[in-house]
Amino acid sequence: MSGLCGKSKEAEIKRINKELANIRSKFKGDKALDGYSKKKYVCKLLFIFLLGHDIDFGHMEAVNLLSSNRYTEKQIGYLFISVLVNSNSELIRLINNAIKNDLASRNPTFMGLALHCIANVGSREMAEAFAGEIPKILVAGDTMDSVKQSAALCLLRLYRASPDLVPMGDWTSRVVHLLNDQHLGVVTAATSLITTLAQKNPEEFKTSVSLAVSRLSRIVTSASTDLQDYTYYFVPAPWLSVKLLRLLQCYPPPEDPAVRGRLTECLETILNKAQEPPKSKKVQHSNAKNAVLFEAISLIIHHDSEPNLLVRACNQLGQFLQHRETNLRYLALESMCTLASSEFSHEAVKTHIDTVINALKTERDVSVRQRAVDLLYAMCDRSNAQQIVAEMLSYLETADYSIREEIVLKVAILAEKYAVDYTWYVDTILNLIRIAGDYVSEEVWYRVIQIVINRDDVQGYAAKTVFEALQAPACHENLVKVGGYILGEFGNLIAGDPRSSPLIQFDLLHSKFHLCSVPTRALLLSTYIKFVNLFPEVKTTIQDVLRSDSQLKNADVELQQRAVEYLRLSSVASTDILATVLEEMPPFPERESSILAKLKKKKGPSTVTDLEEAKRERSVDVNGAPEPAPASASAASTPSPSADLLGLGAAPPAPTGPPPSAGGLLVDVFSDSASAVAPLAPGSEDNFARFVCKNNGVLFENQLLQIGLKSEFRQNLGRMFIFYGNKTSTQFLNFTPTLICADDLQANLNLQTKPVDPTVDGGAQVQQVVNIECVSDFTEAPVLNIQFRYGGTFQNVSVKLPITLNKFFQPTEMASQDFFQRWKQLSNPQQEVQSIFKAKHPMDTEITKAKLLLGRSSDLGQHSLKKLILTLQTLWALASSTPKPPRLDACCVWSRICKLRCTGSRCAQARTLFPRGYVTYCRSSFNPMQAVGLCVLFPCVSATLGDHTAHSTMEHLSTCTSSLGPGRGWDTKGLLTGTTAGLPVQGGPGSMKSRQPVVQSTN
Amino acid sequence: MQFMLLFSRRGKLRLQKWYVPLSDKEKKKITRELVQTVLARKPKMCSFLEWRDLKIVYRRYASLYFCCAIEDQDNELITLEIIHRYVELLDKCFGSVCELDIFNFEKAYFILDEFLLGGEVQETSKKNVLKAIEQADLLQEEAETPRSVLEEIGLT
């Protein structure tokens, strides 16, 4: 190789290409190669592959080698196949045949090679062929020990890859007894197999516990020479000991007192040995010994039942915290993290706080420092929170970028959880933003706002602190957001001080305005309108700002719209209305911290939950009220999460709503339901609804297949790209997607597509293009049926393809005069139709509200909703009692107000309220014109609709408009849109016309 | 264990063993990423690191890095000693591990298969593993002169 290193890369490639050409010609040559040459060339190919070059021939020659009687030829053949043949290969039948012969040969060396090959490839085809045979070899009395070992691990590999193909049976009890085998190699291999099987079938392998304990006991009490070659650097059978301790972690502490006593003795012996002087100075000795010790500690923590052992374990780890070996310090920190969650050892862990803080400051290796952060987080409680948070904050200043976000989340959680004094909490979070603003995610700043709003004792302090923080010449945008929100709500609390008078507050915020991104500017605009309400003296200043061209004619639609509407609101609305609409935010409902959810998502649920479970018991909630135990995570799994959001008492569980899954608080309204795994029709129906208002995304997903969509529509034409992803490692065969249109749909909708390749490789994705032409209006959607063969079984999946009428909507410009002209033309009594139909979803207002909540928008969004609903209820009562055209006005008012109080994406959630309420309204006093009115408004809200709402709205609209009769139905170019300009509520037509046509935002 | 990689200080891959099904593309990506990560670490750093949802255990012998990926609940220290035992076995068969890059590479795979199978330790006794290898050596045909492929390709 030294020669190779000396040469350049090009020389190597040249040399290899020459060799490949040579080998290819030998394989293709007329002269049949003898076994030796064949072996030689296959071996060369393999070597070239391992050097990192691609090899695309030689497989057949390798398979030929398998049937050779010469050991070395067979061996190279198997090696080539283990390394180079993937499970899809067509050669698999030939390979399986050769393996079958070798397994039956009763030659232990050949059997070994065959078993190694199965274990190395481990494909489904091999499992199908051999999963029945291998258990027999494993438990047969006359099988050689070395073959038994291979058979055990071979079976393990197959079980991991295809558990369904390895049937449990009589052999299982005999496998358990291999724990008693005389040959320690057999026991070692069997223990791995049993551990994996026991994890899935604990009942079936229960008897392994007592056998494992007695085996372990014999090992730990043996003298270091007893086990001969299984002793490793004076440690008796370390690998087997570790495996046995792992096996025991599949079960609770043994019930039989004798077994339990014996196990406790073992664990004590292991702990005692750690205190004995080492038998060798070699690192191998200490590593092997400590490997067993750490595994024993894992078992002690897993059982979590012997306080004595837990405390001893903790003391032992404490010693390691200061060990000179970095590896041991690392592992001690890691292991102590889990100990901290046990009630028995939490206090003992806490005594090491100074050492851990020191580790955070002095460790040179970032991975060790990260463990120290984890441990500080785990050992934190009320007594040491301030110290730990301070240390973490100071570490954050120099922390590696890769772990900053996680530290920010941890600090935020600890500060909240253990805050006694909320001024400390506010200071901490503002410090966080100052030190690591870029790493402060939305969840964190939402949370500080929630807490400030919920605790009136801290509001004045918060306002003062953010005001001071904003004075810094360069402050992070996140600080501007928090500052903007808090001053908008509580700026009045500090306005008495001439140094923070309303005008100074406004100027301070506005000085940051131009440096901020659109969402922040949108938030600031909302703060300004709140200022108008709070401080009448700055009203004209703010109106001037809103009126300036940079706001009113802003290129960003959201900003422009806010400016227009706020300006109107500030000039039109009376003080009372302004005060109602812009009233102070009511307290947030207390739920699982959104930050915690985020941390869980980052770390994976399992690791965090345990810690949190334990943590919760020691914590009190933010609102200061006694916390009902399941208030956070577990509450999310009941059907009415935070049902009291509206202050209406417990809402009945929504019958049609799917149970929301825990976590993921920040998903859009209603989107939870769709992300659930959908076996067939029911799930895909939900997904379908989501696509009413969007064009791209995942339509369907199960364990095998994922279907993604990308589509675009223009006028009456559309094109849809369907992506079929094979999620498995196995080929799909006879893959045939078919588009099915019902008879009446066929006339209205033209679909054209080409067939796709019938095989889809494992992990591969194929694409299908569908060209769509909408000929006339339609209600049903086409169905996409997919059939394929996967691993010998036939699969059949049907999903509705989301091609809906609204995809073909077109914007149209209409002056208000025209609109009302047409509106008035529709006033004849016969043009009003009432139809009563059964609603698909119950119409109970309580349930409707509960359903809204089910969507579980973010805390902030929901919070805004709550207030909105209160405001809207009043407005609605007003609107319902007025004659028809004003009702439409009321709708408009409503839609405007929906947008008013929410920032950025939250706005989207509020908007969903509007059509829902309107549909409900239309259903109760039905009028097709109102349906048309809704069509008019629909596109402008549809951009951000939740799936449920959009779906029911569409469904309802179809029903409504069909009753209008020919010519009056909503043709695709009819009354829709543009008419925002015609709505008489607010905003001059001129300012509106400059906007994008609203329909285009439906993507 | 999910996989084991051996690579040189220059980042050249010497041996790869995968115990989970992955596509070639994925394997290459993982290898590239890990070789880079491990080579960037300083000598006194600890032998373990978190990587994706796996734990990486690595150790350097002369100019060769041995790198194993294990799962969350697996034991790091015992994995270090798996590496060491493997090095001992290679040493026994090839003399010094420093010359690992010029041995019969196929033999390194055979030894590994005897020691580790399906990602689990199969036989920890050095004597038993070597016995299996010797037996295989005995089965080699007399006529065959054991030549390294490397020599034949002319790369040594």
Automatic annotation (TrEMBL), chain A:
Membrane-related topology note: Peripheral membrane protein
Gene Ontology terms, MF aspect: clathrin adaptor activity; protein kinase binding
Biased composition (Pro residues): 652-661
Keywords, in A-Z order: Coated pit, Endocytosis, Membrane, Protein transport, Transport
GO biological process entries: clathrin-dependent endocytosis; intracellular protein transport
Annotated compartments: Membrane, Coated pit
Broad class of the protein's primary localization: membrane
Family: Belongs to the adaptor complexes large subunit family.
Protein name (record): AP-2 complex subunit alpha
This protein's encoding gene: Ap2a2
UniProtKB/TrEMBL annotation, chain B:
Pfam families documented for this protein: Clat_adaptor_s
GO-annotated cellular components: AP-1 adaptor complex; clathrin-coated pit
GO biological process: intracellular protein transport
The protein, known as: AP complex subunit sigma
Domain AP complex mu/sigma subunit, residue spans: 1-139
MF terms in GO: clathrin adaptor activity
Cellular compartments annotated: Cytoplasmic vesicle membrane; Golgi apparatus; Membrane, Clathrin-coated pit
Originating species: Heterocephalus glaber (Naked mole rat)
Entry function: Subunit of clathrin-associated adaptor protein complex 1 that plays a role in protein sorting in the late-Golgi/trans-Golgi network (TGN) and/or endosomes. The AP complexes mediate both the recruitment of clathrin to membranes and the recognition of sorting signals within the cytosolic tails of transmembrane cargo molecules.
Gene expressing this chain: LOC101721754
Keyword terms, alphabetized: Coated pit, Cytoplasmic vesicle, Golgi apparatus, Membrane, Protein transport, Transport
Assembly and binders: Adaptor protein complex 1 (AP-1) is a heterotetramer composed of two large adaptins (gamma-type subunit AP1G1 and beta-type subunit AP1B1), a medium adaptin (mu-type subunit AP1M1 or AP1M2) and a small adaptin (sigma-type subunit AP1S1 or AP1S2 or AP1S3). Binds to MUC1.
InterPro entries with a match to the protein in the record: AP1_sigma (IPR044733), AP_complex_ssu (IPR016635), AP_mu_sigma_su (IPR022775), Clathrin_sm-chain_CS (IPR000804), Longin-like_dom_sf (IPR011012)
Main location: membrane
SUPFAM superfamilies: SNARE-like
Bilayer topology: Peripheral membrane protein
Record family assignment: Belongs to the adaptor complexes small subunit family.
